[in-house]
Automatic annotation (TrEMBL):
Residues annotated as domain NAD(P)-binding: 5-329
Gene: rfbB
Gene Ontology annotations of biological process type: nucleotide-sugar metabolic process
Superkingdom field: Bacteria
EC number per UniProt: 4.2.1.46
Stored CDD domains: dTDP_GD_SDR_e
Catalytic EC class: lyase
UniProt keyword Aminoacyl-tRNA synthetase, yes or no: no
Protein name as annotated: dTDP-glucose 4,6-dehydratase
NCBIfam families: dTDP_gluc_dehyt
Record's signal peptide: none
Keywords: Lyase, NAD
Family: Belongs to the NAD(P)-dependent epimerase/dehydratase family. dTDP-glucose dehydratase subfamily.
Length: 358
């Protein structure tokens, strides 16, 4: 049975990845989920899996060298999927230090622990071991021309403390590949959306605020463009890169779903109106009049657009979920999981699990 070490598995993308892997492989794999349970980590995301014999949760910080090395020493880790990161741009602008600590130094701890556990006396590595570093398209900076795209060869040009910290972690992984011939891949993905996303991010924030009749904040003119990918498509891409990607390569993962932020908000409002029952009082609250333009974010990148040509040609992956379908799936999930959303917005989930894992 192959053992996967997933960092940040209680977060949005990490928890969706773990669900995907168990749906696909069931009892053929074992997953050890390591998460520090900061505000973005919520074990409610994985409650349906907690009784599985082949699933283990370990509360640990990836910057804790002793804790991470202990996990490697006590388990025969075959795959590392490294999600754990501080990821919200606005928070990075207010407090860059924690982003460097987690995203750069934490990645270094993970790389060293895996290298030391997998390396052989001759400097080569044990067979069938792989480390996958999950990163973002934001490391490439901003696109100005409408017909331009981010490729794996695009120069790194980060514009926020968050993207700079992720670019630094990417470069560390690349350095380990080049220096030690370390068995790793880097993936850079566009904006994800779907179930379990913390409601400070655009799509769940707009859904939650609209249903409560609260203002819908829009940076600047709302014309900044992002490429959106349904989170299950991302999980599938990560699995395929782990199994079929060429060692040492970087793969861009994009959704072919470029949309302006204001366009996303209007689609959500229109979809909510379509999906809410006629007798649902919230229909009266959902209105475009809630849209409120606010001062633009500092260093706000104009446009991101991923060209996923390489992953399609080499591995056969492509985004399967059209945005119109993915957004309906996402809204339905939030409709069906109002208790989850309430616990997250109130902070109750944090108090419960922090007490449990003191």
């Amino acid at each position: 049975m192959r053992t996967y070490l997933v960092t940040g598995g209680a977060g949005f993308i990490g928890s969706n990845y773990i669900h995907y892997m168990f749906r696909k492989y069931d009892n053929q794999i074992r997953i050890i989920n390591v998460d520090a349970l900061t505000y973005a980590g919520n074990l409610e995301n994985l409650k349906a899996l907690e009784d599985r014999d082949n699933y283990t949760f370990v509360k640990a910080d990836i910057c804790d060298k002793v804790a991470i090395e202990k996990i490697f020493a006590e388990n025969n880790i075959d795959r590392v999927v490294h999600f754990a990161a501080e990821s919200h741009v606005d928070r990075s602008i207010k407090n860059p230090e924690v982003f460097v600590q987690t995203n750069v130094l934490g990645t270094l701890v993970m790389l060293n622990a895996a290298k030391n556990a997998w390396i052989l006396e001759d400097g080569s590595f044990k067979a069938d071991k792989k480390f996958l570093h999950v990163s973002t398209d934001e490391v490439y900076g901003s696109l100005e021309e409408e017909d331009s795209y981010f490729y794996e060869t695009t120069p790194i040009d980060p514009h926020s403390p968050y993207s700079a910290s992720k670019a630094s972690s990417d470069m560390l992984v690349k350095a380990y590949i080049d220096t030690y011939k370390f068995p790793a891949n880097i993936t850079n993905c566009s904006n994800n959306y779907g179930p379990y996303q913390f409601p400070e991010k655009l799509i769940p924030l707009i859904i939650n605020n609209a249903l409560q009749g609260k203002k819908l904040p829009v940076y600047g003119t709302g014309t900044n463009v992002r490429d959106w990918l349904y989170v299950d498509d991302h999980a599938k891409a990560i699995d395929l890169v782990q199994e079929n990607g060429r060692i040492g390569e970087r793969y861009n993962i994009g959704g072919h779903n470029e949309k302006q932020n204001i366009e996303i908000i209007n689609i959500i409002l229109e979809t909510l109106q379509e999906m809410l029952p006629e007798n649902d009082e919230r229909r009266k609250l959902v209105s475009k009049e809630l849209i409120t333009y606010v001062e633009d974010r500092k260093g706000h990148d104009k446009r991101y657009a991923i060209a996923p040509d390489k992953i399609k040609e080499e591995i056969g992956w492509y985004p399967e979920t059209m945005f119109k379908d993915g957004i309906r799936l996402t809204i339905k999930w939030y409709f069906d999981n109002e208790a989850w959303l309430k616990n997250v917005t109130s902070g109750d989930y944090q108090k419960y699990y922090q007490e449990m894992y003191k």
